């Protein structure tokens, strides 16, 4: 394993070299703060616009006159001190503050005076209130300094909100790097990294209540390490049984050829980096727990980030079952925690009381002390993509953090993403994959329904939704007393309706929304506005489906058919096909965590599959065309990932486990599933994307705004040489629930397609677009794509960030910029 800390080729060298920057403020006497790159650019900005510089924080207090720190020395009065003037702190009188503002041209630290009365409460990482542009805004102190490079007067801090330090030095540097990589602002990243303050949780005694108590090694946040125990070096192992964690975990990790060596490197205080192809079966939580135990044995912390709360619970249970887990209980950060509990757990991590943290997406910023290992499980899951600005991805944040803090990183899944594969190809990470012998012993038997043999037995096998092979596999598993998992791509009953004659999707005549049915007893209705489909007219129908009063605008047919069947309809059909067998559903409305080892049919949507005690006897993967036929660059990759996640819940093949997939055997994802060789498929995907110039071989930015705002951005941006600008194209916007009110609830009835409903949608699009301003209500939002070579990614981010700053400074139309979006177009 590579234990170095070289710059990641193709992952934006400038954004990874976080520690290269310096404050440049001349505050060489700074001794209490985050320093380094976190304050880069402060002095330059102050010198460029001294009259409007935010370092003044706006006008001084009315009660007195602010004082001016001398350049390069101790603070001195700006003149004769008047009665009521602000008395600044004797030591480190200047605080560098990052303010909470979305404006890109203000994305830099600003200097403020620290009044003597606040000196004890204003520490690096604490929350403050400052006066900026005539109003009070929130901010976080990056550091305290002796002096400022700003030539004008400095305004004092308005208020010290709390003396609790919520921002550590490594997380501050990470936030700056993430903002630079995604052309965003540090304030936006800090909103993701630091939860809102809760005074009651903050006032509670350290370590009181919750999932974890302070350990013997805990120390104040930001305090020095124990004597003889330096960060990044092996410390004294914390083992309840005195055994070697690397030796203990070698058994479960022996399925991977280099697994024991990876654990040994972690236990020895090293920083190996690997992309991990997990073996089939339910062992992945235990394997993660063993890796965490090895990292903590060297006296370091560990951070595990998983897609959802069920995965958090599984990894937490695996950690708690280990001897080392009982000595260092994990702290769980889940998205469903209340504000007080989430903030209390965050403070436990910040205070150094939780060396092991397991959580969902936002936990990647958790301020784990002396971090030694970062684990990202199932990085291809779209839950790892942050929907809020600047839209970072958990995998990329983990890579940046591992590079900056020189810690180990493990990116794993049954089928890691193409982006993770790119890390292996450039040599930044090693590969951990199960041996073929281990796969043969752990993987279930996979059978596609479209084989020639099955077609000879059942000629309708290729067209049937539930072919005879799937029925036989389900009956055999139920007869053996085992549960059966049925994966259905879509939720609901009939989420999509089409014309029975021409097969075109059926649209509402009032708002052009899609038609659907929510249950067997429910009438066909629009899924947007709720208007029911008119009753059938007299006379024979045209199309061979269910006759209605609706007429197709293309062919004139008046009969409808279900083009997609959801999980509720599937449960209804299987309940009739297997009478007397319990049917359970797991989806968005009700997600099951586990099911008992007894005969039952479990209908689930992708990602909501419960774990069965002992594994499922059979797994049926239905409607493969619905996943593979999506117009998405990642359709094949995402389909294989979802299939493998469900198939891994089946019993091993030697134990009778079977997987039936309803898809053509000649397709790449089906072949990879049959052989259980996702690495080969992902490798081919990477090669094909590289030939076509698609990510991750290139970096892509999606920019949305009004046409005028997009023109202004392109005019202000100095794009890298050879950059491709694709578009613009209209941005599809669906009306909100309020604007989709059914007839009789505030919306006029009887409007034709493109009438009132469509007009409301266009008006909402203009109002909610980033460029809303004068005349914006007359402009629909548009999107353009900017594509550059991977090596130009950092240059593209800087160009877009500078252009956004120029637009913000002159109050032009604002735009939404997203780099590396999961969905392009």
Distance between the amino and carboxyl termini = 38 Å
Give the overall shape.
Answer: globular
SS class: alpha/beta
Main sheet overview: 7 strands, parallel
Helix content range: 25-40%
Q: How much beta, percentage-wise?
A: 15-25%
| Count of β-strands | 30
- pLDDT < 50 stretches: 1-67, 70-80, 207-242, 539-544, 734-777
What is the count of helical runs?
A: 24
Q: What is the mean predicted local confidence, pLDDT?
A: 79
User: Biggest sheet: strands side by side, in what order?
Assistant: 9-10-8-11-12-7-13
Radius of gyration from the CA trace?
29 Å
Give an overview of the whole structure.
With 825 residues, this protein is of the alpha/beta class. It has 24 helices and 30 strands. The protein has a seven-stranded parallel beta sheet with strand order 9-10-8-11-12-7-13, with helices on both faces. Strands 1, 2, 3, 4, 5 and 6 form a six-stranded antiparallel beta sheet that branches. The longest helix is centred in the last third of the chain and has 17 residues, at 793-809. The chain is globular.
Quick summary of this structure?
With 825 residues, this protein is α/β, with parallel strands linked by helices.
List the keywords.
alpha/beta, globular, 825 residues, 7-stranded parallel beta sheet
Topology:
Elements: H1 13-16, E1 32-33, H2 42-48, E2 94-99, E3 110-113, E4 127-132, E5 135-145, E6 159-160, H3 169-181, H4 186-193, H5 199-203, H6 245-253, H7 259-267, E7 273-277, H8 284-297, E8 301-305, H9 309-321, H10 323-327, E9 331-333, H11 339-350, E10 356-359, E11 371-377, H12 394-405, E12 408-413, H13 418-425, E13 430-432, H14 436-442, E14 445-448, H15 452-457, H16 468-479, E15 484-487, E16 496-499, E17 515-516, E18 525-526, E19 546-547, E20 559-564, H17 567-577, E21 583-586, E22 594-595, E23 601-604, E24 611-612, E25 618-621, H18 624-628, H19 635-647, E26 658-661, H20 668-675, H21 678-692, E27 698-705, H22 707-716, E28 724-730, H23 756-768, E29 782-789, H24 793-809, E30 816-819
Parallel strand pairs: 7-12, 7-13, 8-10, 8-11, 9-10, 11-12, 14-26, 15-23, 15-25, 21-23, 22-24, 25-26
Antiparallel strand pairs: 1-5, 2-3, 2-5, 4-5, 4-6, 16-20, 17-18, 19-20, 27-29, 27-30, 28-29
């Amino acid at each position: 394993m590579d234990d170095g800390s070289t710059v990641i080729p193709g992952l934006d060298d400038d954004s990874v070299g976080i520690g290269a920057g310096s404050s440049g403020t001349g505050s060489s006497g700074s001794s209490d703060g985050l320093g380094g790159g976190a304050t880069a650019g402060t002095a330059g900005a102050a010198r460029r616009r001294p009259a409007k510089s935010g370092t003044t924080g706006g006008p001084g207090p009315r009660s007195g006159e602010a004082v001016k720190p001398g350049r390069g020395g101790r603070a001195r009065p700006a003149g004769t001190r008047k009665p009521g003037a602000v008395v600044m702190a004797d030591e480190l009188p200047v605080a560098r503050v990052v303010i909470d503002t979305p404006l890109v041209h203000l994305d830099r630290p600003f200097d403020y005076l620290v009044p003597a009365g606040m000196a004890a409460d204003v520490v690096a990482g604490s929350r403050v209130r400052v006066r900026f542009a005539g109003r009070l805004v929130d901010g976080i102190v990056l550091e305290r300094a002796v002096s400022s490079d700003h030539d004008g007067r400095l305004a004092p801090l308005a208020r010290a909100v709390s003396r609790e330090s919520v921002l550590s030095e490594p997380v501050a540097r990470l936030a700056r790097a993430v903002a630079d990589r995604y052309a965003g602002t540090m304030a936006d990243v800090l909103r993701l990294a630091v939860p809102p303050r809760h005074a009651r949780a903050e006032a509670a005694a350290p370590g009181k209540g919750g999932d974890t108590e302070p350990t013997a090694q805990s120390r104040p946040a930001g305090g020095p390490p124990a004597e003889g125990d330096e960060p990044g070096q092996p410390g004294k192992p914390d083992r309840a049984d005195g055994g070697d964690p690397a030796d203990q975990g070698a058994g479960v990790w022996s399925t991977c050829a280099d697994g024991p060596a990876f654990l040994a490197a972690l236990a020895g205080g090293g920083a190996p980096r690997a992309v991990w192809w997990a073996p089939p079966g339910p062992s992945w939580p235990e394997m993660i727990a063993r890796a965490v135990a090895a990292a903590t044995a060297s006296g370091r912390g560990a951070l595990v980030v998983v897609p959802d709360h069920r995965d958090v619970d599984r990894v937490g249970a695996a950690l708690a079952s280990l001897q080392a887990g009982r000595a260092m209980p994990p702290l769980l950060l889940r998205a469903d925690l209340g504000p007080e509990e989430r903030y209390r757990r965050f403070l436990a991590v910040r205070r150094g009381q939780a060396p092991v943290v397991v959580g969902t997406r936002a936990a990647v910023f958790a301020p784990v002390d002396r971090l030694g290992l970062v684990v990202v499980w199932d990085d291809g899951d779209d839950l790892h993509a942050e929907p809020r600005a600047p839209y970072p991805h958990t995998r990329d944040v983990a890579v940046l953090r591992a590079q900056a803090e020189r810690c180990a990183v493990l990116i794993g899944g049954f089928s890691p993403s193409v982006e993770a594969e790119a890390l292996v190809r450039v040599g930044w990470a090693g590969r951990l994959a199960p041996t073929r012998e281990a796969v043969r012993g752990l993987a279930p038997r996979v059978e596609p329904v479209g084989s020639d043999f099955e077609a000879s037995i059942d000629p309708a096998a290729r067209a049937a939704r539930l072919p005879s092979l799937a029925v036989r596999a389900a009956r055999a598993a139920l007869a053996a007393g085992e549960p059966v998992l049925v994966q259905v791509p879509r939720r609901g009953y009939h989420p999509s309706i089409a014309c029975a004659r021409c097969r075109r999707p059926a649209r509402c005549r009032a708002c052009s929304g899609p038609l659907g049915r929510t249950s067997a007893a429910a009438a066909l209705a629009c899924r947007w506005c709720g208007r029911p489909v008119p009753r059938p007219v007299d006379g024979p129908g045209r199309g061979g489906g269910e006759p209605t009063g609706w007429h197709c605008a293309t062919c004139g047919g008046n009969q409808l058919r279900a083009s997609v069947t959801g999980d509720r309809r599937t449960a209804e059909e299987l309940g009739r096909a297997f009478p007397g067998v319990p049917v359970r559903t797991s989806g968005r409305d009700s997600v099951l965590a586990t099911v008992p080892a007894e005969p039952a049919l479990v209908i689930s949507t992708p990602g909501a599959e419960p774990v069965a005690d002992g594994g499922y006897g059979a797994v049926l993967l239905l409607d493969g065309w619905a996943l593979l036929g999506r117009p998405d660059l990642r359709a094949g990759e995402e389909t294989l990932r979802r299939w493998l996640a469900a198939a891994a819940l089946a019993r091993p093949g030697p134990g009778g486990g079977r997987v039936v997939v309803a898809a053509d055997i000649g397709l790449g994802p089906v072949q990879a599933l049959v052989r259980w060789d996702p690495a080969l498929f992902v490798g081919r995907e990477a090669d094909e994307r590289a030939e076509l110039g698609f990510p991750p071989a290139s970096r892509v930015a999606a920019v949305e705004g009004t046409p005028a705002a997009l023109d202004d951005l392109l005019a202000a941006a100095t794009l890298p040489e050879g950059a491709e600008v694709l578009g613009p194209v209209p941005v599809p916007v669906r009306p909100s629930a309020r604007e989709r009110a059914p007839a009789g609830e505030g919306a006029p009835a009887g409007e034709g397609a493109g009438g009132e409903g469509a007009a409301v949608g266009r008006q909402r699009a203009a109002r909610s677009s980033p460029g809303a301003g004068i005349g914006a209500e007359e402009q629909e939002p548009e999107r353009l794509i900017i594509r550059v070579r991977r090596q130009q990614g950092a240059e593209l981010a800087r160009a877009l960030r500078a252009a956004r700053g120029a637009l913000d400074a002159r109050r032009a139309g604002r735009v939404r910029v997203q780099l590396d979006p999961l969905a392009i177009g």
